[in-house]
Specification:
The structure is a homodimer of 163-residue chains. In chain A, 83% of the residues lie in helices and 0% in strands. With 163 residues, chain A is an all-alpha fold. The longest helix of chain A is centred in the C-terminal third of the chain and has 34 residues. In chain A, helix 4 packs antiparallel against helix 5. Chain A is elongated and about 55 Å long.
């Protein structure tokens, strides 16, 4: 689609985000199944529930903007998830949690960048309802990233002790 | 490769980062060529020079760790760059700079997540020289991201006025 205006850019970005969120909903259960840490399992499960809501918020934002609610295949998230799948195959039991966290933090940072851009554009366009919806998701992504950093401390120590 | 220890994980992550940095070195010239903003052009050019140094630092870190200096294809960065290429094709003259910045910030955030993980692991492994090398790169990535946010303000306003 031709992106003639910033509003077109925002709709395009949100359709990409909808694909990203849908891909994450599919990818998280495998991470949840593979982890040996109750704390990490719970954090990923909570984030799976949030991710489903985030996808709904993106649809809500597209609806407000009158854009297509059709997801547009997000190649960035596809690559990040592929990498995570590969690393889970290569990991030993001792390093698996540390590697799952690393993969999940790449996912979070992709989303932090994308929501940051989308919010800046929506602000300029005076789309306050869209700003509010997306800010809620951005705050959740940042909190999820911080929670993962916190859990990483114990997971990394475990992986170091195996070295 | 099997990732049995956190050190294996760190080597694996750095080989991924080496591929990511190499891909960015190839992708930035197209962004530099396409932008109509002198300020953005200069910022991307400066970051291209930094990126070449960052690739050397990653090689230096791999050398310290005794790991292979061979890059390992980074699927995440490949997807992010593909998306940026696609968006540059779809953009109008008015929205191009805003979209280039959005794509470049996704690149930066991937790297911020990756260096963050690698530094945490290197700290735990007591690899102080590796920590120092990578922290220099992480600080550059964060500064590049902030610079892009700053330039985005004027680029976005230009794109809004075209709406």
């Amino acid at each position: 689609m031709a992106i003639k205006t910033l509003k077109d850019g925002l709709v395009n970005e949100l359709r990409d985000m909808l694909s990203a969120e849908n891909q994450i909903v599919k990818a998280l259960p495998k991470m949840i199944k593979n982890t040996g840490s109750d704390e990490l399992r719970q954090a990923l499960q909570d984030h799976l529930d949030e991710t489903r809501e985030q996808a709904e918020r993106v649809k809500g934002a597209l609806n407000i903007l009158g854009g297509s609610e059709r997801a547009k295949a997000c190649a960035g998230m596809k690559g990040i998830i592929e990498e995570g799948d590969e690393i889970m195959k290569d990991a030993s039991d001792d390093t698996l949690d540390a590697l799952i966290i690393a993969a999940a933090q790449k996912v979070e940072h992709y989303e932090i960048a994308s929501y940051g851009t989308a919010i800046a554009w929506a602000e300029l366009l005076g789309e306050t309802d869209v700003v509010n919806l997306l800010t809620e998701s951005l705050n959740e992504e940042k909190a999820a990233d911080e929670k993962l950093t916190e859990i990483a401390r114990s997971a990394n120590v475990e992986a170091t002790e195996a070295a």
